[in-house]
Amino acid sequence: MTLAAVVLLAGCASIATDTPAAGATTFRHAPLVRDLFIADPSAHVFDGRIYVYGSHDVDEPARDDEPGSGFVMRDYRVLSMDRIGGPVTVHAPGLRLEDVPWASMQLWAPDATEHDGRYYLYFPAKDAEGIFRIGVATGDRPEGPFTAQPEPIAGSYSIDPAVFADADGARYLYFGGIHGGQLQRWVSGRYDASMGITDLQQPEAPALMPRVARLSDDLLSFAETPREVMLLDDDGALLRGGDLDRRFFEAAWVHRHDGRYYFTYSTGDTHTIAYATGDSPYGPFTYRGVVLAPVQGWTTHHSIVDVDGRWYLFYHDTELSDRTHLRSAKVAELVHEADGRIRTIDPFVR
Ligand code: FUB
Fold this sequence. Notes:
Number of strands: 25
Bound molecules: beta-L-arabinofuranose
CATH architecture: 5 Propeller
Structural class: mainly beta
Distance between the termini: 14 Å
Strand content: 35-45%
CATH topology: Tachylectin-2, Chain A
Radius of gyration: 18 Å
């Protein structure tokens, strides 16, 4: 396994070394598919079948030098399987860039939900001005095809939408990503390109926090202005910008287990999937630990899903390509300990 690669990163500076998995030996889990690259896997069970909504990574030149510009995805391909470990179906493209009226490039990490037999695909893309927005597309089948709304969700920005359906039926959209995900450009409430390509560079100040908004009943818009999801340390203080091992970078996800809400996310340049717990879908969430140790590849992204009473982590790595922008989705069993902690998953047998 070669661990050095010059890459265009999703979130960090445009060139870096791809070495988070140093010391690893054997990959613990196999790619779900081997003939195309699917990353950022968001898994759900719809009508008894497992569907995975991911980014469809391709090897094409970047169009600009913004961070993450090497991730040029142009369509979404849904995967499905009837059980974990079963044969995987790769569905025809469910949505193409050219069919999204407002989008100019970069169909990044999506997610989906179902309501009354309709399926809703939430996805980020850059608009004509190069600003990431979040769109929604609908269809009659979980794998699509999906028809995009003519405009992005009003008031949406940044990347990595993830939908959580609470027990009362309310749906919440979590989103945000720093660096290439542009969250730092929204600190004033308006897009400000002068905020540059990094985070706030204030290590002692509170970190940039992910966002959440409850969705409207038709699931096509925000029912409220997005608010910050507060991530705290054990003392109840906001995680700081310089706390690179714990602060939010991108890839939000929420699941509920035993009455607790788990907010899970990527720490980006420290390469873990971390978790924090709370009592409300809005948070605050207190940092608890690591769900997934660093994988091979710079980015890490995941989803957590209950399949017939057992929990699974879907994630990605670069096992098949050793190139940061060509990633493969994988799945691992996830264990909640009796005290509510999540047992850390090591993607390697060491
Ligand atoms: O796939 C493009 C970006 O890479 C995602 O939006 C991030 O979460 C990272 O996985």
